[in-house]
Specification:
By secondary structure, this protein is mainly beta. It has 1 helix and 22 strands. It folds into 2 domains: 219 residues; 82 residues, Sandwich (Immunoglobulin-like). Helix content is 5%, strand content 59%. The strands form 4 sheets. Strands 1-3-4-5-6-7-8-9-10-11-13-14 form a 12-stranded antiparallel β-barrel. Strands 16-22-21-18-19 form a 5-stranded mixed β-sheet, with no helix packed on it. It is globular and about 55 Å long.
């Protein structure tokens, strides 16, 4: 009886330990100054099982291209004035910007804006009822249902939309990616439908998404989704190449002097560095389109960046990330 009693107690303890879900809080989302490279994958995999102590093995994912997300103050964006409640702006390698509001209750989508590739047409998605993307905090077993509505503006037309997002936090355990193993991963799964109406005609688009996060990291570890635009489906898979550890402090953001500025016929810009350091350098248009992305070795004192002669005149943002510090400046090219 004694051994049976101890065995029973041990089983209860093991069960209690297994039931401890990671908890995702506002600290696990994004911080202004974060820069996250992601691996866009050419192969798709099944999202795997839901449940407790699951192992999701995606070690065979194949990177097809790298993209980078920068998180900046919304007010520094050319479109920021249209999203006064946003607290974060995500800028990707394309020319679109995503605006979010992070509170102690939700991560909400405030809207999107950008300029369509190869055109001067502005695309905007403006919410009259914002979309609650993630409840904050969340843990295994949590569910959330939200409705939203707004208008999409492109090519001089307005498309009114309404929709619903239905989310469940359906599993936790170990996530294996090509860049490492994460034993505190938690997964949410949502389905999203959106009805779009223009000229009295309504079409429906849908999205199913699985997202993995970690209690000890910021940003997503991995994301998979299937999108249906009413004509066909598209699968998307990507993972974070260098997940930001939670206890790493927010990156310092400082302004840096560039010279000459404005930049004229000689397309070489100079700046000062206070240390020897590897650095990631990006040049973007003011609407977020990536023009230059390079890795450089900076030295103490004067450094230079040579721009291509075919870069058109305009206003750009130069970003230099080094030693947990991000240096930014506006650059005028004439």
């Amino acid at each position: 009886m004694k051994n049976l009693f101890l065995t029973s107690i041990g089983s209860l303890l093991i069960g209690a330990l297994a039931a401890q879900s990671p908890v995702i809080t506002a600290s696990n989302v994004h911080l202004i100054g974060d820069q996250t490279p992601i691996a866009w994958c050419s192969n798709s995999v099944e999202p795997g099982d839901a449940g407790v102590d699951v192992t999701w093995d995606f070690s065979n994912l194949v990177e097809s291209e790298e993209q980078i997300f920068d998180y900046v103050e919304p007010s520094t964006s050319v479109f920021g004035y249209q999203f006064p409640n946003a607290t974060l702006c995500a800028i990707g390698d394309n020319n679109y910007q995503s605006f979010y509001r992070l509170t102690d209750d939700f991560l909400t989508i405030e809207g999107y804006a950008g300029i369509q590739e190869g055109t001067s047409d502005t695309l905007k998605i403006l919410y009259s009822d914002v979309e609650e993307l993630l409840p904050i905090p969340f843990e295994y077993g949590d569910t959330h249902l939200d409705t939203f509505e707004g208008v999409s503006q492109a090519m001089g037309f307005d498309v009114n939309f309404t929709g619903e997002i239905d989310l469940e936090v359906d599993g936790y355990g170990t996530l294996i990616l090509p860049n490492g193993t994460y034993d505190d991963a938690i997964r949410y799964h949502f389905t999203r439908s959106q009805d779009n109406t223009i000229f009295g005609q309504t079409t429906t688009t849908t999205k199913e998404q699985w997202g993995w996060m970690s209690a000890n990291h910021r940003f997503w570890l991995c994301l998979m989704e299937t999108n249906n635009d009413g004509f066909g489906t598209e699968d998307i898979v990507w993972y974070s190449k260098n997940p930001l550890v939670l206890n790493v402090s927010q990156m310092e953001v400082e302004h840096i002097a560039l010279y000459p500025n404005p930049l004229q016929s000689n397309r070489t810009v100079h700046f000062q560095s206070d240390c020897n350091s590897e650095a990631s350098i990006q040049l973007r248009t003011i609407d977020g389109k990536l023009i230059i992305s390079s890795a450089e070795l900076l030295t103490i004192g004067e450094n230079e960046l040579k721009l291509n002669d075919d870069i058109p005149a305009g206003i750009y943002t130069l970003s230099i990330v080094m030693n947990k510090k991000r240096l930014i400046s506006r650059l005028v090219v004439q």
